[in-house]
Sequence to fold (286 residues):
Amino acid sequence: MPELPEVECIRSYLEHTCVGAKIALSQLVREDIVGSVGSPRGKRSAKKSTTPKVALLDSSTLVGVERKGKQLGLIADNGRALLIRLGMSGQLLVVESVDKNLSHVHAVWSLRFNNTLKFLLFRDPRRFGSILPCRNRAGIDDHWNKLGPDALTISQPILWQIMKNRVTGVKALLLDQARICGLGNIYVDESLFLSGIHPKKQACFLNDVELQLLAYSIRRVLSKAIHAGGSTLRDYRTPDGAEGNFQKAHSVYGRIGLLCTMCKATIVGDIVGGRTTAFCPNCQAL
Fold:
């Protein structure tokens, strides 16, 4: 968390409100959140600031905001870029003034539009996120080429390539960002429920109809979640501080012990791929 829908909502907000702003790095509170290709989680042993301000888009203009999977790319007019990994609890907030009492703010940029001044904050209470400076667009591609296809555009033929000859459970494969990127625990559980597939079913046994239905279910669940502003369970907020609403529409995630909305069987839980998993034993029979 946040997963693809939440990151897409953040991307869309930043694209519509921040592109064209002149950027200045106001403060880098924690140098250890700045990562690289070799250290994407950041330099956790860093004790003092060594990152040049220009690498963090200082004195540039924001010209684009891109996304792949759960990652964001901020593109500047000088060719430089910042790749943002939000991790478990990362937030990008756009505010009119910086509240000094707001905890866990690790980096602050000023955004100037003509005579208007706002601030972009990178906040991450659990510190699993990071900021990765890239000299150019190729730097972002170095990271994103390691990821699988974006889940929002997944199709049956691509799923077949991912699943064929794999005896691994389907949920474990869907969580593997190197095979398909953007899905986490919430939207895998919801997509598998919509497609009627048990999370432990071996991927190689999915037939063409199931693969077609699963691809459709993934796209539909993600699209509905984006339309609802994402799911706010704990930390996720859009850049203006608003919560998402899709958690109110979850069919199985977070509903273990409750009745299935389709058949009234009891939603059960299990551990799949090291993650707590919710599913309906009737609608998703193995």
Notes: The two ends are 27 Å apart (CA to CA). Helices lie at 4-17, 137-144, 156-163, 170-174, 185-195, 208-227. The longest strand covers residues 60-68.
